[in-house]
What we know:
Low-confidence stretches: none
Largest sheet: 3 strands, antiparallel
Number of domains: 2
Shape: elongated
Structural class: alpha+beta
Strand content: 5-15%
Mean pLDDT: 77
Radius of gyration: 19 Å
Helix content: 40-55%
Number of strands: 7
Amino acid sequence: MRCTKCHKNEAAIHFTPVLHGKPQKTVHFCKDCASATTGFHFRGPDKPEAWPVTGKRRCTFCGRPARVGNTLTGRLRYWCSDCTSELRSIFLDLCVSERPRLTERVEGTLISTASKLVLARHSGIVDKQTAAFIVRDAPEVATWAEAAYLRAVKVFVDRRRQHSHDKGS
């Protein structure tokens, strides 16, 4: 089936709009036209930035069962619920101290807070392109939040190293 918009590529995304609770005619798009039309980035499952974890994976930091895996820092890391909560706390502290408005709804965004957007990326709920689309009217927010996330991870890792060093003394 060909894309409804460009009529060139094979349709890969199929939208069925619902109006007043009734399904409308399904529209078929190729990935490029779907992205251009909706603003959402559709990527294959081969290289996710973050994903939910099931099975035997262990947290990179504490060894407990992992809940999330991600490569947002450029390295593969697995996170348990407790370590994710600690990282979230560090990240929110950065938000409060450096950009207190980011803990409130940001003008021009589709998400309640910019901090929740970054945490959604951490868990694999939102990818980088979709995050950029969500804060498209406030690009400086996305840039700062991305950098703050990386700093929060560094603080988290440094704290873990210090804690490990203190336990060994």
